[in-house]
Amino acid sequence: MEINILDMSFLSVVFKVVLVIVIFIIILQALKIMSKDVKRSGLKNGKNLGWKLRLEYSGDGGSFIAGDIIPIGSKISIGRNEANQMLLPSQSVSNYHAQIYFEDGRYMLEDLKSTNGTYINGVRVDKKSLQPGDEIRISQTVLVVLDDE
């Protein structure tokens, strides 16, 4: 049986192309995984915890409905002004009512000198760290803090 040098050259090219495709697929999968981690803010050391808010009751209107999940990210502002990430159009909500932000490895809720106050678990607060399960009430809107699990 005679081996044609042209056949070996063709097989070599095919092998190289297959190898490049396999490496490309591996790199794409790695990038996909890294992208998910960044989007979920899964880096807990120095970055935000990836927590979310679940809307329990939306008595203040807006585009949110009960059951909606709102990611906090590194900061979310809440209020009646359209510049806020979470818009609550009720007159009982201040223009810039409150904000939640990530600081020193934890999420903080800060009332921004609102007229009607911000409540965590039924207690009016000016600034307080949040824990999963905490219930936040702003006017008639009720939110529950969820961790990234």
UniProtKB/TrEMBL annotation:
Highest taxon of the lineage: Bacteria
Cross-referenced InterPro entries: Cell_Proc_Reg/RNA_Proc, FHA_dom, SMAD_FHA_dom_sf
A Pfam short name: FHA
Signal sequence bounds: none
Annotated CDD domains: FHA
Protein name: FHA domain-containing protein
Taxonomy of the source species: Bacteria, Bacillati, Bacillota, Clostridia, Eubacteriales
